[in-house]
């Protein structure tokens, strides 16, 4: 789907059959990579509670990214919204600028009341020295895998599913305030920096509605995460990871 390809949505959302399941096969293909990602986070937290040192659990991130990337690859041909990786020069510029703006806001919206929990972040150092392989995997995973996985779940699936169970028939430009707000708030509280997360969710959701292609929020998300990773490594602010 390109920025101006609206043939799939010409007739508007279709009502789901009365006996249709709440979540379709297409929905699960967008949910499962996200569940795998969250599952690894939960597993890491449980292992720490059982006494495992955080330093010994750093391998979980490469494993998490690998599993998510594998699931995305398996389902890739079913992601109709990703078949045409095209953005106009103007659209690409807006996405990149939005991603950079989100980064600036992200690292500044960090007052105590804007944080949930006590995030330790991801520290790739060993014996006081950065393990560059781990740092590179972290940045690559955050910039190349996570944006695709999260945008498929939050924007392409959930944002449209709130409007109609037959979410694939929903034109992004027709999404209402309810979908926009609910998705942004839930996206925000997926992160320790909940207010920064809500702002990011609003920005990525706006791009999706405005440009009508999932590649726009994916590009912005990738810029935010990639630049954040480089900033974290350069400054040593590991809690932002």
UniProtKB/TrEMBL annotation:
It comes from the Bacteria. The keyword Transmembrane helix applies. The chain crosses the membrane at residues 27-47, 59-79, 91-109, 130-149, 180-207, 214-234. One of its GO terms (molecular function) is peptidase activity. It holds the Pfam family Rce1-like. Keywords: Hydrolase, Membrane, Protease, Transmembrane, Transmembrane helix. Coiled coil: none annotated. Residues 135-227 form the CAAX prenyl protease 2/Lysostaphin resistance protein A-like domain. GO terms for biological process: proteolysis. This is CAAX prenyl protease-related protein. It comes from Massilia solisilvae. The lineage of its organism: Bacteria, Pseudomonadati, Pseudomonadota, Betaproteobacteria, Burkholderiales.
């Amino acid at each position: 789907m390109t920025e101006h390809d609206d043939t799939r949505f010409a007739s508007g959302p279709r009502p789901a059959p009365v006996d249709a399941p709440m979540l379709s096969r297409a929905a699960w293909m967008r949910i499962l990579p996200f569940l795998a990602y969250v599952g690894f986070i939960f597993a890491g937290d449980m292992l720490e509670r059982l006494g495992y040192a955080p330093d010994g659990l750093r391998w979980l991130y490469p494993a998490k990214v690998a599993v998510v990337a594998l699931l995305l690859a398996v389902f890739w041909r079913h992601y109709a919204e990703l078949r045409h990786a095209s953005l106009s020069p103007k659209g690409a510029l807006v996405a990149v600028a939005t991603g950079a703006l989100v980064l600036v806001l992200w690292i500044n919206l960090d007052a105590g009341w804007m944080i949930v929990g006590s995030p330790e972040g991801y520290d790739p150092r060993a014996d006081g020295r950065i393990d560059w392989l781990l740092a590179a995997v972290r940045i690559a995973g955050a910039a190349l895998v996570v944006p695709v996985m999260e945008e498929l779940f939050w924007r392409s699936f959930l944002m449209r599913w709130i409007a109609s169970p037959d979410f694939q028939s929903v034109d992004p430009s027709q999404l209402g305030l309810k979908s926009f707000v609910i998705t942004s708030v839930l996206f925000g509280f997926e992160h320790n920096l909940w207010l920064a997360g809500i702002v990011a969710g609003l920005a990525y959701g706006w791009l999706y509605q405005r440009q009508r292609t999932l590649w726009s929020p994916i590009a912005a998300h990738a810029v935010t995460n990639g630049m954040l990773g480089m900033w974290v490594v350069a400054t040593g602010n590991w809690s932002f990871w």
